């Protein structure tokens, strides 16, 4: 396919599922991760199309060099802004520092990475960016105020980016995952079975999604099959966001 992608936070979870989809389809994929062992192990599992980039995305000052180093190899055709962190805590107990930590990684780094990648994309005739949002941006979920704020911003940024970057033939879309069966969700639901019951009761399809459901959607947005689509936010959630 001769395309090059960057997947932030691609060493685990939905990012890893996306990187797997890309690598299996011949896309050279740079996986940006902060944990060196985990990131290198993920790339080893993914094979020759996966390239580890060990980097802390909260270090905004170093992002331009990190992206320019990747671009020395040529074009960057696809950017998946997947990296993010959450904080589950009562609203009145969240500190300013904790709120800012979520915003720093989930919003500021997305902007900085996107800005630098677009500089490369426009020199090579365009590209596509896929941001990852959440059900937290679709409706109120308790105890995740900072995460909710960050994902609401990501969806608004997606629309603004799409308008700003169309002049460079760069498309920008967003995937909003529903409740997906992962190790993290398994632990959360085992601790709170009532929450799992509530999630499934308002999901018309009555099941949790698979990481591959998200990866398949991101893959569609990344390629020419979605060539006339930009500025959209697509829930991949079994109907959860419209369930009653």
From TrEMBL:
Specify one Pfam family.
adh_short_C2
Task: Please name the SUPFAM superfamilies in this protein's record.
Answer: NAD(P)-binding Rossmann-fold domains
Molecular function terms from GO: oxidoreductase activity, acting on the CH-OH group of donors, NAD or NADP as acceptor
Query: CDD domains from the xrefs?
Result: SDR_c (cd05233)
Its domain of life reads Bacteria
- Segments passing through the bilayer: none
The record's section on Gene3D superfamilies has:
NAD(P)-binding Rossmann-like Domain (3.40.50.720)
Q: Its family?
A: Belongs to the short-chain dehydrogenases/reductases (SDR) family.
* Name used for this protein in its record: 3-oxoacyl-ACP reductase
According to its UniProt entry, this protein's organism is Polaribacter reichenbachii
């Amino acid at each position: 396919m001769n395309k090059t992608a960057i997947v932030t936070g691609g060493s685990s979870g939905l990012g890893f599922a996306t990187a797997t989809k890309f690598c299996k389809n011949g896309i050279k994929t740079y996986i940006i991760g902060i944990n060196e062992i985990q990131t290198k192990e993920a790339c080893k599992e993914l094979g020759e199309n996966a390239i580890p980039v060990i980097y802390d995305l909260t270090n905004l000052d170093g992002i331009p060099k990190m992206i320019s180093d990747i671009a020395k190899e040529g074009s960057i055709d696809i950017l998946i802004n997947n990296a993010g962190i959450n904080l589950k805590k009562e609203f009145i107990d969240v500190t300013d520092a904790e709120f800012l930590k979520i915003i720093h990684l989930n919003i500021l780094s997305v902007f900085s990475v996107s800005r630098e990648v677009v500089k490369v994309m426009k020199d090579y005739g365009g590209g596509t960016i896929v941001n990852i949002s959440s059900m937290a941006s679709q409706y109120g979920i308790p105890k995740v105020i900072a995460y909710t704020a960050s994902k609401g911003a990501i969806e608004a940024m997606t629309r603004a980016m799409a308008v700003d970057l169309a002049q460079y033939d760069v498309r920008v879309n967003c995937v909003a995952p529903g409740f997906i069966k992962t190790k993290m969700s398994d632990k959360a639901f085992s601790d709170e079975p009532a929450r799992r019951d509530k999630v499934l009761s308002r999901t018309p399809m009555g099941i949790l999604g698979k990481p591959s459901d998200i990866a398949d959607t991101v893959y569609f947005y990344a390629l020419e099959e979605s060539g006339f689509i930009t500025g959209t936010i697509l829930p991949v959630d079994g109907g959860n966001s419209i369930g009653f």
